[in-house]
Write a structure and sequence with these properties.
By secondary structure, the protein is α+β, with helices and mostly antiparallel strands. 16% of the residues lie in helices and 41% in strands.
C-alpha cells in the first residue's frame, strides 16, 4: 500500500502553477485555461480509392491561454510592469517573432515540477482587472490572456 504522503507527491495539483515571460516572474495563478493544441487533420477523398479516406496534416492551432487569480500587491505590480513594457514595444512588433517566451510550470504538493509548457512568441491579448463594486464583498481578481504560436 502506498503511503498518503508518497501518493500525494506524484499528483499534479491544478491550483499550483507559476508563470514567467522572458524571465519576468508574473507569479502564481489560481486558474489556467487554454493549454490545448488542435491538429486539424484534413480528410481528402481520392478518386478511385474506395478503401479509405486519405488524411493530410492541417494547420495546427493553439487557443489563447487565460490566467486568473486574486489580485495581490506584489504579483499584480509585476504584471502591470510587464504590460507597460509590452505596450511600449507594441508599435515595433509589426511581424511575427517579436513576442516573448512564457513558461507555465505545474507543481505537485511538495513543490516539485510536474510539467512545464513553453509558449512561443507570446503577446498579451487582454488584461482585465476587478469589477469595483462597493455593494459586494467579492474578491478583486485579475485575468491575463496570452496569445501565442504554440508550445509543442
Amino acid at each position: 500500500m502506498v503511503a498518503l504522503h508518497s501518493f500525494e507527491t506524484m499528483l499534479a495539483l491544478t491550483t499550483r502553477f507559476h508563470v514567467t515571460v522572458d524571465g519576468v516572474d508574473l507569479g502564481g495563478w489560481a486558474r489556467c485555461q487554454g493549454l490545448q493544441v488542435k491538429f486539424n487533420p484534413e480528410v481528402v477523398k481520392e478518386g478511385g480509392n474506395y478503401h479509405y479516406e486519405a488524411i493530410l496534416p492541417g494547420q495546427i492551432q493553439y487557443p489563447n491561454v487565460i490566467l486568473a487569480r486574486a489580485m495581490n500587491a506584489t504579483d499584480t505590480a509585476k504584471v502591470q510592469a510587464w504590460l507597460r513594457d509590452r505596450a511600449a514595444e507594441w508599435v515595433d512588433a509589426m511581424s511575427s517573432g517579436g513576442g516573448g517566451t512564457a513558461q507555465i510550470k505545474l507543481f505537485d504538493a511538495r513543490a516539485g515540477v510536474v510539467a512545464t509548457w513553453s509558449l512561443r512568441n507570446v503577446y498579451p491579448a487582454t488584461w482585465k482587472g476587478p469589477d469595483l463594486d462597493a455593494m459586494t464583498m467579492g474578491i478583486a481578481t485579475e485575468t491575463l490572456e496570452l496569445a501565442h504560436e504554440g508550445f509543442l
